[in-house]
Amino acid sequence: MPVSNWLNWFKQRSMVVRKVVTVEARQLFRLDNEVLAFRFTATMSDRASAAPRERLSDHGRLKLWLHAAGFGVPDVSPAELQDALDLREAIYRAGLAVTVTQRPDPGDAAILNGAAAAGQPRPALENGLAVWHLSEEAPVPDALGVLAANAIHVLGGPDRGRIKACEGPGCAGLFLDTSRGANRRWCSMNTCGNRVKKARLANK
Q: pLDDT tens-digit profile of 162-203?
């Protein structure tokens, strides 16, 4: 098949997706985590508080988050929403285990491995930017496969000893401490870090 015909076929069989970060997405989600998989786990916020907040309360919100993350899926089914929530919680539990130098539970590892294997996304470099091609047949499993693969890379990679849980009040969000002294305490200085500093100033 000529190259030009192959490219046309490929474009017809896949969807090119790029980040679409709307005002609504910025208001609903924490999008500042450097690790994609941990940004996903942050869709359940205030995990260590008395009332954790579920931000993926319906399939529309998952679609919105996926668009903001660079996965422009056309729609999300109820079953796909549940698969996403199951994957998210498996990533979080596995991450917490790593923060205390324990191995992730085999069941959680199986969920990550299964999602990573099921997805068929294709990375591409277009106009100097990295994008994902998702299949028309299963775009949501493809996107979840990318999230699972990212989690596997971080949780099992050489920097896994730098994975931490945020010490901000009620947070416990996962993050990768890339500071030179490995002394970072908060998932984000702009949110949890500022809250702690403001609380200290108020108590003086």
A: 999 999 999 999 999 999 988 999 898 777 867 766 666 566
pLDDT of residue 130: 87
For the CA atoms of 197, 185, 66, 14, the dihedral, rounded to the nearest 10 degrees, stands at 140
- Give 14: exposed, middle or buried? Use CB within 10 Å, 0-12, 13-18, 19+: buried
Q: Which residues contact 13 (CB under 8 A, 6 or more apart)?
A: 135, 136
For residue 83, the model assigns a pLDDT of 98
**Tokens at 1, concatenated:** 């098949």
Contact call for residues 187 and 171 (beta carbons, < 8 A): yes
Q: Give 51: exposed, middle or buried? Use CB within 10 Å, 0-12, 13-18, 19+.
A: exposed
State the pTM of this model.
0.86
Residue where the block lists tokens 């609504």: 24
pLDDT in tens, 146-159: 999 999 999 999 99
Phi, psi of 13, rounded to the nearest 5 degrees: -95, -5
